[in-house]
Structure formats: C-alpha cells, structure tokens
Design brief:
Blueprint: H1 2-28, H2 40-70, H3 72-79, H4 85-97, H5 103-111, H6 117-121, H7 133-155, H8 158-183
Helix pairs in contact: 3-4, 3-5, 4-5
C-alpha cells in the first residue's frame, strides 16, 4: 500500500508541476492584453460614432418624446369634445414651459366632466364645429335646381331654350340696375 500511495503522490506532484508550468508559460508569454475583440482603430471609430449619436440624436428624440407626451391631454380633450378644450390646450403649452409640472393637471382635466357646464350651456360636450345647416340647405336646393334645369333642358326644344336664356339675362340686368340704385 505504501508503494501505491507513493505512486499517487508522485502523479499528483507531476500534475501540479504541469499545471504550474502551464500557468508560468501563459503569464510569461509577451502578448498584447486587450479587453476587446475589436482592433484599437475600430474601437476609436465606434466610440466616436456612439458619442456623436448620444450628443445629437438622443436629445432630439427625448425632446420629441417629451413634446408628444405633453400634448396628449390636448388630443384626448379634442377627441372627447371637451367643452374646455382651449383651456386644456393652454395648460399643455404651459406644462411644456414649466418642465412638465402642470401635465398631470392637464391630464386630469381632459378626463374630467366640466362642473356646471351642462347647466350653463345645456350640454356636457362641445359639438364639433361643422358647416352651417342653412348653408347646407341652400346648397342642396341649388343642387336640386340644377338637376331640374338639366331635366327641363332635355325636354325643351333648343329655340325655346335660347329665348328663355335671353329673358333671364334681361331680368338679371334689371335686378343689377335696381341694386345699383339702392346702393347710390
């Protein structure tokens, strides 16, 4: 057993000596020590690109994001036809100037129902401004008159149509003269 024990101790000593020699070989070897897989020139170019990106692109993106977030209450109020939309828009602009301190107020205001607005104006919502109904009715009537005129023109002989156009021109001249006298 002693012989066996001495063989094991000898092989262990050889293994330790081999590991120690390997370690000394790698430590004593003159090699450039680099922490990167890139060459130094490529590292410089990459660092320059990253620096320029951080200096020029990141602030622009952050400012645009800041602006988009701060006009969000205005868009919500517009979409919900909030009757105090102009006040919310003003608060959003002021929030941009004050670094976002007023933004939560604008957000809450955009989602709130106005107090006593219904009692004062009869509705909780601001109806979108559309075309005037009287103007729409006049346009619809004019469209139907043109349609009727086109149908009549199809039925009336061309000679009678020319006579009607001459009479219409004479009437328009008389109306224009009467208006000119009223103005003078």
């Amino acid at each position: 057993m002693t012989r066996r024990h001495s063989l094991r101790a000898g092989s262990l000593a050889v293994r330790c000596a081999g590991g120690l020699l390997t370690l000394v070989f790698f430590l004593a070897r003159p090699v450039d020590a680099r922490a990167s897989l890139l060459s130094p020139e490529l590292e410089d170019k990459l660092a320059t690109f990253i620096a320029l990106f951080v200096i020029f692109v990141v602030p622009v993106v952050l400012i645009a994001l800041f602006w988009m977030v701060h006009v969000l209450p205005e868009k919500i109020a517009h979409k919900r036809h909030h009757p105090q939309f102009e006040g919310i828009r003003t608060l959003c602009l002021l929030s941009l100037l004050f670094g976002g301190l007023l933004w939560p107020l604008a957000w809450l205001w955009a989602y709130s129902k106005p107090v006593f607005y219904k009692m004062a104006y009869g509705a909780d919502r601001l109806e979108p401004a559309g075309p005037d109904p009287a103007h729409d009715a006049a346009e619809a009537e004019a469209g139907t008159l043109h349609d009727r005129l086109a149908r009549v023109e199809g039925r009336v002989p061309p000679t009678e149509l020319e006579a009607l156009r001459a009479d219409l021109a004479a009437l328009e001249a008389k109306v224009a003269a009467a208006r000119a006298r009223e103005v003078a």
